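TASK: fixed-backbone design
INPUT:
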């Protein structure tokens, strides 16, 4: 089974912390939809006829699409790609774009899961982030989506200078009280070339405190465990049976096709990414051309990516899989390299898997990088 990601590169306004590809000008939106439909046709063979089980509208702000545009896009995907049973179709939305009739129309179009960019239930935090909505709208949007029987996921951000531990507790408790089945929680990151970076550099905003972030992440893990949520990936929590199947596919190494400017694709042996420019994207597809860069992956890169993604999950790195796919030497070296983290109690071995402890999750990226291979002896087991 495979997934399809559709990048909608438009936003009403720029959040201070965001470095995703988007534009606040809607002038090219109609041409973009036409180009996107063309790309869907041109990418017909990318997934090698593997059935699609998830579709994810990301961005940007996909809720800026009209219902008719969502319907046309989903219809085109369904016509071109074979689809599995019980499809998961997610649309990211901002609270200020959510109204009862719009949610009903999304449901009729085939959307069955909405990921809401709440970020905080505090107006102080939302103003600091330059979000377009208020806390009351966030609460109302959750209710509107839930009332239509759609799955609800929300995003929350922690570690901002305006977020006290008490307000962070209120944010999480509010999400739990709203019976949200899935939460994606991210530490604020100061990305290059963002408004946030400039404001901090010019001392108009205080810098991010990594100690505050670590403390609030530890609090989050404790609260979510007590509330019965699975911490199934570093940044993601779900009630049993409510994981994001689309995002889980990334961490499980499944194939996916990315559509739209800046979108990435993976077919098991190569990666490619579309041009991050709306006008060039539209112009190239008007000529029937795909504009992208591509990288063929070596066995070492495939192994390192598996370590990086699997280590982020609650299931961890499958040692049997490593031995089977990459050879016994790779397994021996991986166990040797992970030994120091077992002694530090940042990794534990559970049912022949390497799994991060709560403390280890604080250092996930660094641990994964330290376990990476530089070379890998080819094995008759590798593929």
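OUTPUT:
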């Amino acid at each position: 089974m495979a997934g399809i990601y559709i990048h909608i590169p438009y936003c009403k306004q720029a959040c201070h912390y965001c470095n995703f590809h988007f534009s606040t000008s809607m002038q090219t939106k109609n041409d973009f939809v036409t180009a996107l439909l063309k790309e869907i046709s041109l990418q017909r063979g990318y997934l090698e006829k593997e059935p699609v089980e998830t579709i994810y509208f990301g961005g940007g702000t996909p809720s800026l699409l009209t219902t008719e545009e969502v319907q046309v896009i989903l219809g085109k995907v369904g016509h071109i790609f074979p689809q599995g049973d019980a499809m998961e179709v997610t649309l990211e939305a901002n609270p200020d774009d959510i109204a009862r009739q719009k949610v009903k129309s999304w449901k009729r179009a085939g959307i069955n899961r909405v990921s809401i960019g709440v970020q905080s239930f505090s107006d102080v935090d939302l103003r600091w982030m330059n979000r377009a909505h208020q806390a009351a709208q966030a609460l109302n949007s959750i209710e509107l989506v839930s009332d239509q029987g759609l799955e609800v996921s929300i995003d929350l951000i922690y570690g901002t200078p305006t977020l006290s531990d008490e307000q962070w507790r209120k944010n999480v408790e509010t999400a739990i009280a709203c019976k949200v089945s899935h939460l994606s929680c991210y530490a604020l990151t100061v990305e290059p070339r963002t408004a946030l970076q400039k404001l901090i550099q010019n001392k108009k905003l205080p810098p991010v405190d990594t100690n505050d972030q670590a403390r609030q992440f530890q609090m989050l893990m404790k609260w979510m465990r007590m509330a019965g949520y699975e911490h199934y990936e570093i940044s993601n929590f779900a009630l049993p049976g409510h994981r994001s199947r689309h995002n889980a596919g990334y961490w499980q190494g499944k194939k996916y096709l990315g559509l739209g400017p800046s979108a990435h694709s993976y077919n098991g042996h190569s990666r490619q990414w579309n041009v991050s420019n709306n006008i060039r994207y539209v112009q190239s597809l008007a000529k029937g051309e795909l504009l992208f860069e591509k990288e063929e992956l070596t066995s070492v890169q495939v192994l390192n990516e598996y370590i990086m993604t699997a280590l982020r999950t609650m299931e961890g790195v499958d040692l049997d899989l490593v031995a089977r796919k990459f050879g016994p030497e790779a397994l021996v070296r991986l166990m040797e390299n992970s030994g120091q983290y077992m002694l530090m109690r940042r990794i534990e071995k559970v049912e022949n898997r390497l799994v991060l402890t709560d403390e280890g999750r604080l250092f996930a990226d660094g641990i994964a990088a330290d376990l990476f291979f530089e070379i890998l002896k080819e094995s008759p087991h590798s593929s």
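COMMENT: The longest strand covers residues 83-93.
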